[in-house]
Amino acid sequence: MTEFITELMNDYAEISYLISILVNVLISLFAFIPSVFITAANIYVFGFWEGLILSLVGEVLGSVISLILYRKGIEFLTREKEITHPIYKKLLTTTGVEAFLLIVSLRLLPFVPSGLVNIGASFSKVSVTTFGIATLIGKIPAVLIEAMAVSQYMKWQGEEKVYFTLVALILVLIYFLVKRKRGI
Fold first, then answer.
1. CA 11 → CA 6, 22, 78, 82, 170, distances in Å?
2. Domain named VTT: which ranges (predicted)?
3. pTM for the structure as a whole
C-alpha cells in the first residue's frame, strides 16, 4: 500500500500534498486502517520532517472530518431512539475541559485506535475546535514516534527488515490472540 501511495504522489507531484491529506482523511473515515502506510509514504517522498508535519496535519484534519461525519450519521441513526447505555450517556454529557483532557489522554495511549477516539468523541458534545486542538496535542507524540519508527525501518536492509517484520507480525498476532482469549 505504501508503494502505491508513494508512486501516486511521485506521479502527481504537483498535487502530492493534497493526495497525502486525502489518503489520511480516508484512513480516518474508515476508522481501523493504520496510518503507518501514509506516514511511510510521506517520509519517503518528502523527507522526515516535512513528511512528519504532513502526516500530522492529515491525521488531525482526518479526525476532525471524521468527527463531523460520524456525528451526522449518529444523529441520523438515533433520531427516534433513546440511547440508554451508560457509556454513551456519559459521552453525551462530556464537554469542555473534561472532554479535552479525555481526548488528549486517549490520543497519547499507544494502543487506542484513533478511529475509536473519533467515534467515541462523536457521541459527545465536545466542540469541533476543542476536539481538533486536543487531537493535535495528543497526536504530536504519536505521529513523531510512528515517523521515527518508520524512518528507522526504511533504513534497514535485507535480514534486519525481515527479522523485524516477522517479530512485529508475531507480536501483533499474540496481542490479538490474548485479546480474543480475554474477551476484550
1. 9, 16, 44, 50, 35
2. 33-151
3. 0.78
